[in-house]
Amino acid sequence: MLISERVKIEPLWKIRLRLALRSLRRNWALFWESRIGPLGLGIILFFVLLMIAHPILMATVWDSRVYDPIVGFDRALVGRHPAPPSWAHPLGTDPIGRDVLSQLMWSTRSEFALGVTSALITVVIGTLIGAICAYFGGVIDTIFMRLADLVMLFPFIALLMVLRSVIHLDLWRLALVMGILSGFGGITITLKAQALTVKVKPYIEAAKVAGGGAFHIIRHHIIPNIMPLSFLYMMFNVTGAVFTEAVLSYFGLLDIRMSWGIMIHTAESAGYLGAFGQYWWLWAPPGAAITLLCFAFYLVGRGLDTVVNPRLRKR
Amino acid sequence: MPLLDVKNLTMHYTTKMGDVHAVDDVSFAIEPGEAIGLVGESGCGKTSIALTLLRLLPDNAKFLGGSVLFEGVDIVRIPEEEMRKIRWRGISMIFQAAMNSLNPVYRVGDQIIEAIQTHFPIDYQAARRRVAELFDLVGLAPELMDRYPHEYSGGMKQRAVIAMALACAPKLVIADEPTTALDVIVQDRILRRIDEVRKELNMAMLYISHDIAVIAEVSQRIGVMYAGNLVEFADTVRIFKNPAHPYTIALMSAFPSIKGEKRKLQGLSGEPPDLLRPPSGCRFHPRCPYATAVCTESPPEYREIQPQHYVACWHPHLGRS
Amino acid sequence: MLRYIGWRIAQIFVTFFLFLTMVFLIFQAMPGDYTKQFIMNPKIPPEARQALAERLGLTGSVWDQYLHYVRNVFTGNLGVSFQHYPREVWDVIKERLPRTAVLFLVADLLAFALGYPLGKYIAWRRGRISDYVVTVTGVLFYTIFTPLLAIILLFVFSNVLGWFRSGGFLTPSLWLRPPVSPQTVFLLLTATICGLLGLWAGSHFLTRRIGHPRPRAWARRGLVALGLGLAGIAWGYSGIGSYAWDIVWHMFLPVLAVTLISFGGTMLLMRDSMLEVIREDYITTAKAKGLPEKVIRDKHAARTALLPTITNFTIGLGFIVSGGIVTETMFSWKGMGLTYLEAVLQQDFPLAMGCLTFTGILVLLLHLVVDVLYAFLDPRISY
Question: Which of A277, B91, C21, C304 has the fewest Cβ atoms nearer than 10 Å?
Answer without folding.
Answer: A277
